[in-house]
Amino acid sequence: MKQDFINLFIFKDHLTSRTFQVPFAWLRRLNLILLFILLLLVSTTMVSARYLWIKYTKKQNQIIALEKEIQELKLVQTVKKEQSLPQPPAQSLSQPTTNKTLPDPAALNIRLAEPKAKWIGNNLDVQFNIQYIKEDGGNQQGKILILARGPEILLAYPSGALNIKELKSILNPDKGEYFSVSRFRIGNTKFGPVLQKEYISDVQILIFNKDNELLLVETIMPEKMSKKIINKQATPIPTGSPQ
After folding, report:
1. Predicted confidence band at 232 (pLDDT cuts at 50, 70, 90)?
2. CB–CB of 113/128 below 8 Å?
3. Domains, in order of start, for the chain
4. What is the DSSP annotation of the chain?
5. pTM for this predicted structure
């Protein structure tokens, strides 16, 4: 006669054994439950991995789009400047020429002084000064945008300065912080907290005039990583609040 259960014998301290009967139906149900849990774990892991990959790819696309847009801003300003100037006389082919993507610093009314990015705990503190350098009693008005980025992160101040959902125009100068300086202005913002300091590799300070034309770009690296200030005209690297 075929049994539909198994017998379990339990012995303890040389006493009489105790017998338990476990139906095969219970074992089959237990196997099905364990198989379901295993399949659920595998599917959850696959979905999580795919989500992280999509998120990482989207972030990389946003960073690339941001770099492209800043370069386009520089190019547009160069074209506007060239169109507003009289046509220069013909030059010898041997004469060197320069292609400026930003206004000549000597022609500006302001300059950025002492830009710093310093780690305080897990927060990155960014400080800089905007100085009005003309002795004409005037002032300069415009917008400030500050970007911080790393291999897998892209942060901005103010928080609305990036159009994350619209890659057609990822940079939004209209959302920058307004400033008006006649002598001296201190800028300060913090990014963080972040889990690891390596998440942010560099910081970029962008200064626009009131017509949203790019005047200055300063790229710096956090002091604990390097105190070196890298090229102002470099390809942009890609929330906090100036005090």
Report:
1. very low
2. yes
3. 105-230 (2.60.40.2420)
4. ---SEEEEEE--TT---EEEEEEHHHHHHHHHHHHHHHHHHHHHHHHHHHHHHHHHHHHHHHHHHHHHHHHHHHHHHHHHHHHHSPPPPP--TTS-----SS--GGG-SEEEEEEEEEEETTEEEEEEEEEE--SSS--EEEEEEEEEEETTEEEEESGGGB-TT-GGG-B-GGGSEEEEESSEEEEEEEE---S-GGG--EEEEEEEETTS-EEEEEEE--TTT--PEEPTTSPPP------
5. 0.54
